[in-house]
Amino acid sequence: MRNNQRIGRRGRFATAIAVGAVAALALSGCARDTGGGGAAQGECERVAPPSVPAASAEPAPEAAPADASALRVGLAYDIGGRGDASFNDAAAAGLDRAVSELGLVRENTREATAQPGESEDAGTTRLRQLAEGGFNPVIAVGFNYANGVQTVATEFPDTQFAIVDDDTVDLPNVTPLVFAEEQGSFLVGAAAALKTETCRVGFVGGVDSPLIQKFDAGYEQGAKAVAPDIQVDSAYISPAGDFTGFNDATRGTEIAAGQYDGGADISFAAAGQSNQGVFAAAQTAGQRAIGVDSDQYNSPQLTSVRDVIMTSMIKRVDVAVFDYVNAVAGNTVEALPERFDLANDGVGYSTSGDFVDDIAPQLEAYRAAIIAGEIEVQSTR
Question: Is residue 215 a contact partner of residue 246, using CB atoms and an 8 Å limit?
Fold first, then answer.
């Protein structure tokens, strides 16, 4: 099976796209009556994924490596920074890979981290300090930096900037690094539907925002593609504009515990550091959870709860950061994809712990169908 790090874009489909061999799944009984529009007991029917020709699902080739030894790269993290076992760690992994594979000199990098409760001006100052320090490019991790990037990129037109998860800054020296989160979420939704024994699953989002709603929407579409009558319980830790939901593990535990008590046996957490609370609730309930952004099964900070993490929706911020540094070094920024998706290895799912090995043919069939355009995943419900 696939290893748990990023793998070759062509090689990963070598065995996966024999999708015509995926047999229709039999009826699978549900353990309880979910109510609320979910499947009734004994009526959790699962259907087979579509079949597509292998050639139509061939992923995009990787760019040739450039020499980044002359670059000085600044990286501004969101709250949590390196070590958050999620979004920021993925960005850090991309920087580390550039050091390892592109000749980027570690001493020519600088990392800075946002602090909880800080003002928007603090983020702007952080970016300005990196630009003033001669770092070029400067990479801002998270949409909270949008106004800061707009301001500082205008002040430093000869410095290149990138921003993860935002495409609102329209300047010639700013590159958006955005993702098709709904596509990766579709795959873990399919995994949840294939693995559930209750025909009821949950979703816990950090903040009720358009970005996190993409995870929610894709997850539900994937689950219902497999089991049309499945019930998906969706909840958010904090409302729009209140970003504490990404750093409130206690509330994450409370919400997930409610979902498990209500009959869900798997919950997908897209909540930053609050994911730790969802995993704790899964462990207490004797159920499963799905992580996000990084391969959370392999996160050192999550060793005590790793056995409940059946897979993670990988949002490859590491790929985006690495590819951007490579493009700056090779003067090929214009060739970067407009959106990192399944076709260019920008999103996916993890296989650590071997929990989804038995359903890999179905998941790879759905992956192939999305890449081929047979399935179009919507970014909203």
Answer: no
Residue type, 154: T
Dihedral through CA 190, CA 194, CA 200, CA 205, nearest 10?
-30
The CATH 3.40.50.2300 portion of the chain extends over 73-177, 180-315+351-381
Q: How far apart, in whole angstroms, are the C-alpha atoms of residue 318 and residue 63?
A: 15
Residue 56, CA atoms < 13 Å, CB-side half-sphere: 14
Residues 300-336 pLDDT 10s: 989 999 999 999 999 999 999 999 999 999 999 999 9
Q: What is the dihedral of CA 213, 90, 7, 186, to 10 degrees?
A: -10
Answer whether CATH 3.40.50.2000 is correct for domain 180-315+351-381. no
Task: Check if the beta carbon of residue 147 is closer than 8 Å to that of residue 133.
Answer: no
Strand partners, 223: none
One-character DSSP codes across 27-71: PB--SS---TTSPPTT-B---PPP---GGGGPPPPPPPP---TT-
CA pair distance 195, 106, nearest whole angstrom: 43
Superfamily of domain 73-177, CATH level 4: Response regulator (3.40.50.2300)
Contacts of 112 (CB under 8 A, 6+ apart): 74, 75, 76, 77, 126, 129, 130
Report the 10 Å Cβ neighbour count for 20: 11
Q: What is the pLDDT of residues 230-251, one digit of tens each?
A: 999 999 999 998 988 998 999 9
* The two structure tokens encoding residue 5: 């790090």
Q: What is this structure's pTM?
A: 0.83
Rounded CA separation 337/176 (Å): 10
270, two tokens: 């897209």
3-class state of residue 274 by DSSP = helix
Strand partners, 236: 205
Vertex 183, ends 254 and 7: CA angle to 5°?
100
